[in-house]
Design a protein that fits this description.
This protein is an alpha+beta fold. Helix content is about 65%, strand content about 10%. It is built from 11 helices and 7 strands. β4 (about 275-280) and β5 (about 285-290) form a beta hairpin.
């Protein structure tokens, strides 16, 4: 499946590329009309241009149909070394058929250019086919280079994203393991529950997806707070707003968890700490009623989340402060 997806991406031609092909086709039509003009300066200018642009348009249409069909149904099924042969053949066929279609459409008109080429129309069709093939060679190199650059850029971003994700939670993991080791001698049942929760957390942590549903992220947060409460003697109280209508919204993995972790780390004062997770149409806000700080800096954890939001291009991180709460909001981009 992965190989098929890679092949599909490699063969993909964007709408912008097709528009460029159509523009080049129209310019090719003007070039063709100039050739006919130099063959016979007495030709009707308008009819020659109409015929030439029609030819170029039909060539572009045939190219779209044949190359698209080839990329979808033929090339994925054959060895990559034969791709160029098939692509060039279909490019030639596009020019050949496009010219023939235009010629026969205008055959019974009074266009002087038709009369001029009527005795050697097949030869011209072959020449136009080879010219189209030449243009296709240039476009193929351009599209291939663009796709390779896009793939390299994508891989660089994915590498940066994975690097950022690998920075997450090392201190939490060490603390959790220390807590579990202490519980083994104090309360074996609690220690067993803690190991199960930690196992569940780590199972989600090794998920390769960078985006997870809000529902999965909340489950991660609840598991995380349950583990942390081993150390904090259940003094961390989590309040989560109703999110049943937002369950399937995709957000960066560990985004809410990281903000909850930040709230515990900087807000805990030795007594009960309330953590609030609230949802709006395009925002998720995490606040707490613990220690207030007037000097907030985006260090490793917060910078990590901010960078992941930027790389994934789905939103931004904002700090909100008032007299009662210290809060961070993930502002998601509106998809509408």
């Amino acid at each position: 499946i992965k190989r098929f997806k890679m092949i599909k991406d490699e063969l993909k031609i964007s709408s912008k590329d097709w528009i460029n092909i159509l523009i080049i086709g129209i310019l090719f039509g003007f070039f063709q009309s100039l050739i006919f003009y130099f063959l016979n300066e007495n030709l009707q200018t308008i009819s020659t241009i109409v015929f030439s642009i029609s030819t170029a348009f039909f060539i572009a249409i045939f190219a779209m149909i044949l190359i698209n069909s080839s990329n979808r149904f033929i090339l994925p099924k054959i060895d990559k070394k034969y791709w160029s042969i098939f692509s060039l053949f279909f490019s030639f066929l596009s020019g050949f058929l496009g010219f023939l279609l235009a010629f026969f459409i205008y055959l019974n008109t009074d266009f002087e250019v038709i009369a001029l080429i009527s005795s050697f129309w097949l030869s011209i069709a072959v020449v136009v086919g080879f010219l189209t093939l030449l243009i296709a060679l240039i476009l193929h190199q351009f599209v291939s280079l663009k796709n390779k650059n896009n793939q390299i850029a994508k891989e660089i971003l994915e590498s940066k994203l994975k690097s950022l994700e690998n920075e997450l939670n090392p201190h939490f993991l060490f603390n959790a393991l220390n807590s579990v080791s202490q519980l083994i001698y104090i309360d074996k049942k609690k220690a067993e529950d803690a190991v199960i929760q930690l196992s569940r957390f780590l199972r989600n942590a090794i998920n390769k997806e960078s985006l997870v549903t809000l529902e999965n992220e909340i489950l991660m947060v609840q598991t995380y707070v349950g583990i942390e409460n081993i150390r904090f003697d259940n003094k961390i109280i989590l309040h989560i707003d109703d999110y049943k209508d937002l369950k399937l919204v995709k957000i960066p993995k560990f985004s809410i968890q990281l903000l909850v972790e930040n709230g515990i780390k900087h807000g805990y004062l030795g007594k009960e700490l309330n953590i609030y997770v609230k949802f709006d149409k395009n925002s998720i806000t995490v606040s707490n009623d613990g220690k207030k700080s007037s000097n907030i800096k985006f260090k490793t954890g917060l910078s990590n989340l901010e960078n992941r939001l930027k790389i994934l291009n789905i939103g931004k991180l904002e700090y909100i402060s008032d007299n009662e709460n210290m809060a961070f909001s993930i502002i998601l981009k509106d998809k509408n």
